Amino acid sequence: MNAPVLPGPLNDNPSLARWVSFPSQGKVTVCTGRVEFGQGVLTAMAQIAAEELDVAMERIAVSSGDTELTPNEGYTAGSMSMQAGGVALRQACAEVRSAFLAQAAKVLGCKASELSIRDGSVLRNGASTGQDYWTLNGAVDLTVKASGLAPRKPVADFKTIGTSRARLDLPGKIFGTPSFIHDMKLDGMKHARVVRQPSRGAKITSVDEAAIRRVAKAPISFVRSGNFLAIVGDNEGAVVAAAVAALDHVTWQNVEAPTPTQQEAAWLLQRPALDRIIGAPEAADAQGRQRFEATYTKPYLAHASISPSCGLALYDDGHLTVWTHCQGVFPLRGALSRTLKLDPAAITVHHVQGAGCYGHNGADDAAADAAITAMQMPGTPVRVCWRRVEEFVYEPKGSAMVVKVRALVDEAGKPTDWTAEIWSGTHQGRPGGGAPLLGGEALPDPLPLPAPSDVPEANGGGATRNAEPLYDIPAKRIIHHLVPETPVRVSSLRGLGAMANVFALECCIDELGERAGQDPVAYRLSITADPRARAVIEKAAAMANWKAAEAGGAGHGRGIAFARYKNKAGYAAVVVALDVDEEIRLRHVWCAADAGLVVNPDGVLNQIEGGIIQSASWVLKEQVRFDSGVTSLDWETYPVLKFSEVPEIDIELVNTKDEAPLGIGEVTAGPTAAAIGNAVSHALGTRIRDLPLTRERTMAALLKE
Amino acid sequence: MSAKFDFSVNGKAVSVSPASEETPLLAILRGVLGLMGTRFGCGLEQCGCCMVLIDGSPEKSCAKPVWSVAGKKITTVEGLGTAERPHPLQQAFLDEQAGQCGYCLSGIIITAKALIDRNPQPTRAEIAEALDGNICRCGSHNRILRAVAKAAAAMREPSR
Question: What is the C-alpha to C-alpha distance for residues A210 and A249, in angstroms, rounded to an integer?
């Protein structure tokens, strides 16, 4: 008989003690490798543990993202926290519960099947036994490996999972108590700001320290290693003033600045690329079938976290301790080890909450800045907090993409052959994947750049994510052109390639439906057998009171789009109603989503709604612009959706009692973009295939009509 | 000898002598007084994370020189309420679970306080307009709009 298969993160961290402990009477500590950045993950983990351990949630403290304490779950990314991390924690807790019941049976001289647990106390046939997790704790060895054999509680018996619970971390943020890494103060801490290389490979030619000191007006010192230059001092304001002054008083050579031409996605078409085909080659013979082709683009996007990246570090007695709000403390430890040539055992990385990150932003780099600086001043804690302009210029961007869709269509107007041809930079520029930390690139002996790669298809793909339609199309393929050299650093941004690919795919489906004379909802249902896909499409249409073949125009439009994230996570269908005159104004958004087993329904709704609003912001407003450098430097030059521009949003969840949870944090990125694109087309009678849908593009489309 | 500036924060008199009279109020609140509820977001008076009330008026504190607040009454999010005695706005934000990462929330709550003080019955559009100077990047806007409307309703009740 084969051994049971453990959930991935539990297989990687099989010791139960790494997940659950009972530190003192009445208390439970649950450890997770997943970290909080506003998505409510710690609350959901506490719910899972409360359910499987049969203890009140109030007893549980959740420890997360700590190289000393918690399981290594890599990155908190890809909407995998519940789908993988939650499932692993659930199994770990079930194993712990079984182990304690077995020990209780031994102590009580009865069968484990006579026993149950209520809020941590062991009951025998419903009656108190005087035993509980804490009386039994000394006799149960939790350092054993998970077996995978312990039964999980049936979904039908759930009391905590599936109920909306208030976020554990929100009160502190509402009452203004220190909650973020930015609020940390260490004894003797100094502030540091890095004078950044204007571009990769730039070399310092001169530093006018005297001029910089004059601006600082308070004592500062310079920390220099190769082309890494940091300004350090006790007075944060003076250090910031000096760092700004250094832009004028440090000279560089070998500087390359991105140009306006490079800011457009189409620039990627001309670049050297690594090419591959996923799927069978295109059929040469298209006889009797109509061919449709269209090209869609998405620009470079910023994560634009509301808090600037921040990191703290202390190098003391040969050990480096780092505090960071990055998405993966273990991968950061590995990257710091390679960058600083330190044994990983000499590095501890603690996660402390920052603001929402939406992917790989500057958090790892700010931690590295602090670490590199702290290594030069043993015994002194160093805090680095990026300036807002620094954040916009230097955070890794979500890559621009060009997606060309070619479809062959049969007599009934249905697609029979589908090609998505993609040009994109990578969506995997994380330090854990071998990409250098920004400060590390400036050191005397920088690590070599890794070979160009993107997220493997097994993990959902990077540029190829969601490029393959879930629809019933006999032949499908992806042609992927990975452009290794991009004008700015690129990496993972919420949804990776899914936003551009679903925008292209779902706009194209509307265009095909229109040519076939069919309503967008009916057309989608006619090419979809997947019952869960059909359910969300039908539900969203019903919520929006969708009327087949409703005429658009006169400035009003409505559109629908659908995707299953990564074609293996959550399902979502989004309907958008909007008005177009000179600007596009969203009136209402409806969304139906299937997230499988939902742990905290309110948390899921919050994530879906946030995803809709962020995607709407990308589509209507956002593009990182270049002109002799990045010129999107602040919230005026990189505007995002404002309160008065946010539509009312209705969301319904379906199929919430499934056994398996499906990730939903990124599920609406693509469908929202495409539903807006389709609604604009419905309103204007002409299609805009390039994002963002700016006033200039809307006006141009109107004039073309 | 650096100049001394007197003002009040959350009802308490404070006196500070920063190295420069141009030191931003936010740096005084966080760095000197240890009040971490008011956040640094941009330092450019754009995002609203650093919003405080100055003599009842909502102002961004990240570039507000300390000399300009001498003699004035400052209210920060810590001055509104506590977990034990929450302000109706804070209670409403908890009730609506109005936030994701929460970094923007203290500034938003301060802006909302000023709005309700001058307009006790704001419409959704009026709340949204008042909050247009505050950025939320996570997309919690609708929950926040609901929370502010709910707080305004609670504050209109005669029992309060």
Answer: 9
Side by side, which strands form the sheet with A60-64? A20-21, A28-32, A60-64
For residues B93 and B147, membership in a common domain is answered with yes
Q: Tell me, yes or no, whether A213 and A137 share the same domain.
A: no
Contacts of A235 in chain B (CB under 8 A): 19
Query: In which domain, by residue range, is A592 found?
Result: 397-444+461-704
Coil, strand or helix at A559: strand
By Cβ distance, the residue of A166, A602, A610 closest to B140 is: A610
User: What's the pTM?
Assistant: 0.97
Computed over its alpha carbons, how large is the radius of gyration of chain B? 16
Residue B47 belongs to what domain range? Answer: 5-79
Q: Do A176 and B143 touch (CB under 8 A)?
A: no
Which parts of chain A sit beneath pLDDT 50?
A: 1
Say how many domains are in chain A.
Answer: 3
Q: Show Cβ contacts of residue B9 under 8 Å, excluding neighbours closer than 6 positions.
A: B29, B33, B35, B74, B75, B76, B79
Please report the number of interchain residue pairs, chain A to chain B, with beta-carbon separation below 8 angstroms: 178
Any idea what the CATH number is for the domain that residue B140 is in? Answer: 1.10.150.120
In this complex, do B139 and A613 lie within 8 Å of one another by their Cβ atoms?
Answer: yes
Contacts of A177 in chain B (CB under 8 A): 36-37
B120 phi, psi to nearest 5 deg: -70, -15
Cβ–Cβ of A305/B145 closer than 8 Å? no
Q: Give A462 to chain B, closest Cα distance, Å.
A: 22
- Rounded to 10 degrees, the C-alpha dihedral A507/A512/A514/A520 comes to -60
Interface test with B, best of A179, A183, A235, A306 (most B CBs within 10 A): A306
Chain A CB within 8 Å of residue B51 CB: no
> Do A537 and A657 belong to one domain?
yes
Minimal CA separation from B158 to chain A, in Å: 25
Q: For residue A178, which residues of chain B lie inside 8 Å, CB to CB?
A: 36
Per-residue model confidence as pLDDT tens digits over A470-505: 999 999 999 999 999 999 999 999 999 999 999 999
Q: Which two tokens stand for residue A135?
A: 């009386």
Which residues in chain B are contacts of A306 at CB distance < 8 A?
Answer: 41, 47, 49, 101, 103-104, 135-138
In the sheet that holds A127-132, the strands lie side by side as: A115-118, A121-124, A127-132
Neighbours of A144 (CB within 10 A): 13
The pLDDT of residue A286: 65
Out of A173, A611, A614, the one facing B105 most closely (by C-beta) is: A173
Q: Which B-chain residues 12-41 have CB contacts (< 8 A) with chain A? A: 19-20, 23-24, 27, 30-31, 35-41
Tell which residue, B43, B53, B72, B119, has the closest CA to residue A389: B43
**pLDDT tens digit sequence for A604-614:** 999 999 999 99
Using CA atoms, how far apart are residues A432 and A429, in angstroms rounded to an integer? Answer: 8
Does residue A294 lie in a domain region? no
Task: Determine the length of chain A.
Answer: 705
Q: Which two tokens stand for residue A648?
A: 């009312």
B65 and B92 share a domain? no
Q: Give A37's contacts in chain B (Cβ within 8 Å).
A: 101
Is residue A166 a part of any domain in this protein?
A: no
Task: Single out the residue of B11, B136, B151, B38 nearest to residue B90, CA to CA.
Answer: B151
Give the pLDDT confidence score for residue B72 in this predicted structure.
Answer: 98
